[in-house]
């Protein structure tokens, strides 16, 4: 059996495994929802998902083209009796070409994403009516502080919610994120929110829930032995329920 046949059989085998797996698991080639589930509940989430898919397609196509080229060259330039290898010193032309292509792609992505980046990350563009919450991360819990009736933090009517972040639907929320001990990462997968909490730093992160329900709060930074337990819940209330919950907590805080 010559070399081409062996390579052909190998490729056919790999293809059969991939197709077999996709048939057995019912996962389609073009449906990528199993990679990025369609469970997004924040206003900017769909834009981020879309961006992620665009980048996945670009890198995916480059990956496939590169691997095919590698295979073709492996076959084309395989060992043959009486064929000697050439010593070459690299190619300036090739270097310039692939560096330029990469540069253009990265710059295009930078301009394409600037709007959404500003919207999410620019501290000056945080919605003015965002509801403020202070979040202190520590090994291994999330302490959310609410300002209480006076709307001021650091006063007697502040109250704490441990590992459960209560927020209203359809209203921006701005979380002031801090860490007490080591670096943690505030991760709300369904909101497509992830932000490091760094000791000594105060970071603002905002988002707006688009529907009510219970969602995941997790730490996405390996922060110690108990890291895996550093989880919680985000409860998105209707606006009225949120006001009721606030009133209840405030009343309880005043009783103390
Ligand atoms: Cu942590």
How is this structure best described in words?
The chain folds into two domains: 3-79 and 90-123, no CATH class; 129-255, Sandwich (Immunoglobulin-like), CATH 2.60.40.420. Helix content is 40%, strand content 24%. It has helices spanning 3-25, 45-76, 92-121, 239-255; strands at 131-138, 141-146, 159-162, 164-168, 172-179, 184-188, 193-197, 203-208, 213-219, 231-237. β1 (131-138) and β2 (141-146) form a beta hairpin. The protein is elongated, with a radius of gyration of 26 Å. The N and C termini lie far apart (84 Å). The mean pLDDT is 91. The structure holds copper (II) ion. Copper (II) ion binds at residues 137, 184, 219, 221, 223, 227, 230.
Termini separation: 84 Å
Name the bound molecules. copper (II) ion
CATH class of the largest domain: Mainly Beta
CATH architecture of the largest domain: Sandwich
The proportion of strand residues reads 15-25%
**CATH superfamily membership of the largest domain, which one?**
Cupredoxins -  blue copper proteins
Question: Got a strand count?
Answer: 10
Radius of gyration: 26 Å
CATH topology of the largest domain: Immunoglobulin-like
Percent of residues in helical segments?
Answer: 25-40%
Q: Work out the oligomeric state of the chains in this entry.
A: single chain
């Amino acid at each position: 059996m010559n070399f081409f046949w062996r390579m052909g059989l190998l490729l056919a085998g790999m293809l059969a495994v991939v197709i077999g797996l996709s048939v057995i698991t019912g996962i389609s080639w073009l449906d990528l929802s199993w990679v990025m589930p369609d469970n997004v509940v924040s206003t900017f989430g769909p834009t981020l998902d879309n961006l992620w898919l665009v980048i996945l397609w670009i890198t995916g196509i480059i990956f496939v083209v590169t691997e095919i080229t590698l295979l073709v060259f492996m076959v084309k330039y395989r060992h043959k009796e009486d064929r000697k290898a050439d010593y070459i010193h690299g190619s300036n032309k090739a270097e310039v070409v692939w560096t330029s292509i990469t540069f253009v792609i990265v710059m295009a992505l930078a301009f394409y994403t600037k709007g959404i980046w500003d919207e999410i990350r620019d501290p000056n563009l945080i919605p003015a009516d965002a509801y403020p919450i202070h979040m202190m991360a520590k090994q291994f819990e999330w302490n959310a502080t609410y300002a209480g009736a006076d709307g001021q933090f650091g006063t007697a009517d502040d109250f704490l919610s441990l590992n459960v972040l209560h927020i209203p639907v359809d209203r921006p929320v701005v979380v002031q994120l801090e860490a007490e001990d080591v670096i943690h990462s505030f991760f709300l997968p369904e909101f497509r929110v992830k932000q490091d909490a760094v000791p000594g730093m105060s970071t603002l992160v905002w988002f707006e829930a688009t529907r009510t329900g219970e969602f995941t709060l997790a730490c996405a930074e390996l922060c110690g032995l108990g890291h895996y337990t550093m989880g919680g819940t985000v409860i998105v209330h209707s606006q009225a329920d949120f006001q009721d919950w606030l009133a209840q907590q405030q009343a309880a805080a005043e009783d103390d």
